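Format is sequence with structure; example below:
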Amino acid sequence: MMLGELSLLLEKVATNANAAEYLTAIIEDNALGKPTQTTRQRSAKRLTELYCLDPGCTLFRLLRHFWSTDQDSRPMLAFLAATARDPLLREMTPFAQGIAVGELVTTDEVAKFLAEKYPNRFRASTAVAIAQRIASSWTQAGYMTGRTKKIRTKPHVTPADAAFAVVLGYLCGLRGKMLLDSIWARLLDQSPAELTSLVEEASRQGWLTYKAAGSVVEITFPGLLRPQEERAAYEQN
């Protein structure tokens, strides 16, 4: 998920920059400190694949919006954005969440699950390489800790992360209580009570409006989404 590279880039590029300026920063200005032109171009390509790097893209605009809230939010913000654009990372993550906190996680186990989930799709060597990259992303997001010996941990999640997860569900057409049980909300790895508490705090921070009366839940995003984004979300519903 290239958290380090994304962090460097967003630190060095102005919040009002356009898409071309992000690519210029990576390739021409070498904002990421890459040793060759080839590695700069490769980094630009992968970061664009994962995060779009275009403020005209709703996902990236919202990522950049929440990025400035606090540093603790950033690993999960980046992970949520990456999973929105990388189906393989998104579909594999429930495997990590199914491992008990404190348990050892091996690359071989991840590769085996990948091969079982997608039979005949990857060669054995490719599955191991993908498993290593996915495990690295999980570590960056906080689902596990350790470099070679990885231990399952519970990720640190903030109200900003919860707001981002909920608005992603909203943009996919979900409404009300379903927003608290979307794929994005489940990726936060929180209990229903913990998630509700985070969303309530996000509401107090003004990132969304949360109202609950019994089993009826209403969540809206006044001031967060642009009119065209609201229209697109409405059409998804």
